[in-house]
């Protein structure tokens, strides 16, 4: 991304799009009973409460009545329909992992099969987005979930610790290309969850090869354990390398969430919050998803940035937009065109 002398002035920035992840599939209801919804009615109401607080993107997972993450697509259909009816302007973003929750103490936390994950393109009603990872990566969320914050929670269970330490994100090139093809055919926008520069470079190569022709909505994930660590220089390097025409959201864990959200909002980008990312505030006290949204709204106002409405967030994310060619896709993101046959040196943009 390029920054001009006045790029940090709020009047030259998009309105803030707040993403909330309020379903926290790695936690069990007893870990935070005041803020982990279990019944379908409670899960729908949680979306309504988050929207009313200022969040316009809902990162969606679903629970069964026993509190475990649901692996039934029918439950996703039910929650999507309920949220769509209750808050129609909210952007519904289905977590592409479907569920992290182990079925029992001895079972590893695994994603569903590739074929089942492809079925996210067949959800009915359709979500606005499905999150898509690029490149198979270790996802050891335990690396930065410090023991003092886990004491007394389900994640202090040794079997769960082992399961989450060994979790991986399967996202090889064949699977990603097929997944993008199916999502695009269904009119569902991918939201790319990127683990670092290497993932963004792979995504750019796929765009240049024509595997995806649509808006680039990106989330940088600084959670360690195989992803970028929560080092500001990792984040700044990612920002520096990101295409001008993309949107960029920050995501981290626990006490790192607020600092990265503040940095993102100060630079014209967007925050993500919710109990999937942290269940504590900077003092170690429990903090609900709604309270985290309210905090983002306060910070945004102090920075002089307005918070986007649901309709404005859809315009910023370009929901429903697709491009007809690789050249159009590259131009929409301010990316250099592909080199033409016989062209030497760098392909340069020419002034009109």
Task: Explain how this protein is built.
Keywords: Metal-binding, Transferase, Zinc. GO terms for molecular function: 3-keto-5-aminohexanoate cleavage activity; metal ion binding. Helices cover 34% and strands 11% of the residues. The chain has 352 residues and is α/β, with parallel strands linked by helices. The chain has a single domain (18-333), classed as Aldolase class I (TIM Barrel). Strands 1-2-3-4-7-8-9-10 form an 8-stranded parallel β-barrel, surrounded by 8 helices. The mean pLDDT is 94.
Label this structure with key terms.
single chain, 352 residues, alpha/beta, TIM Barrel, eight-stranded parallel beta barrel, two-stranded antiparallel sheet, 10 strands, 11% strand, globular
Give the strand order, joined by hyphens, for the main sheet: 1-2-3-4-7-8-9-10
Number of domains: 1
CATH level-3 fold name = TIM Barrel
Share of helix, binned: 25-40%
> Span between N and C termini?
22 Å
> Quick check: average pLDDT?
94
CATH class descriptor? Alpha Beta
Pfam families: BKACE
Cofactor: Zn(2+)
Organism: Cupriavidus metallidurans (strain ATCC 43123 / DSM 2839 / NBRC 102507 / CH34) (Ralstonia metallidurans)
GO molecular function: 3-keto-5-aminohexanoate cleavage activity; metal ion binding
């Amino acid at each position: 991304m390029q920054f001009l002398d006045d790029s940090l002035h709020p009047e030259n920035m998009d309105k803030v799009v707040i993403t909330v992840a309020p379903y926290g599939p790695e936690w069990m209801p007893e870990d935070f009973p005041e803020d982990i919804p279990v019944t379908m009615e409670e899960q729908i109401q949680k979306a309504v409460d988050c929207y009313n607080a200022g969040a316009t993107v809902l990162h969606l997972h679903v629970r069964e009545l026993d509190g475990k993450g649901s692996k039934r697509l029918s439950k996703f259909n039910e929650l999507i329909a309920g949220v769509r009816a209750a808050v129609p302007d909210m952007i519904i973003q289905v977590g592409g992992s479907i569920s992290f929750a182990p079925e029992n103490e001895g079972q590893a936390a695994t994603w569903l099969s590739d074929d089942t994950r492809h079925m996210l393109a067949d959800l009915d009603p359709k979500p606005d987005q499905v999150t898509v990872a690029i490149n198979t990566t270790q996802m050891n969320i335990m690396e930065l979930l410090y023991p003092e914050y886990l004491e007394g929670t389900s994640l202090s269970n040794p079997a769960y610790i082992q399961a989450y330490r060994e979790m991986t994100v399967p996202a090889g090139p064949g699977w990603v290309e097929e997944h993008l093809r199916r999502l695009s055919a269904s009119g569902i926008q991918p939201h790319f969850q990127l683990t670092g520069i290497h993932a963004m470079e792979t995504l750019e190569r796929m765009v240049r090869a024509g595997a995806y022709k649509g808006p680039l909505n990106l989330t940088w994930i600084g959670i360690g354990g195989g992803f970028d660590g929560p080092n500001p220089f990792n984040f700044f390097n990612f920002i520096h390398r990101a295409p001008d025409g993309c949107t960029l959201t920050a995501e981290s864990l626990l006490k790192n969430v607020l600092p990265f959200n503040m940095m993102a909002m100060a630079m014209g980008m967007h925050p993500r919050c919710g109990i999937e990312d942290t269940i504590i505030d900077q003092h170690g006290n429990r903090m609900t998803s709604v309270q985290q949204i309210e905090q983002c709204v306060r910070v945004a106002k102090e920075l002089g940035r307005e918070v986007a409405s649901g309709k404005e967030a859809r315009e910023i994310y370009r929901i429903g937009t697709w491009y007809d060619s690789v050249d159009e896709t590259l131009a929409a993101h301010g990316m250099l065109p592909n080199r033409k046959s016989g062209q030497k040196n760098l392909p340069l943009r020419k002034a009109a």
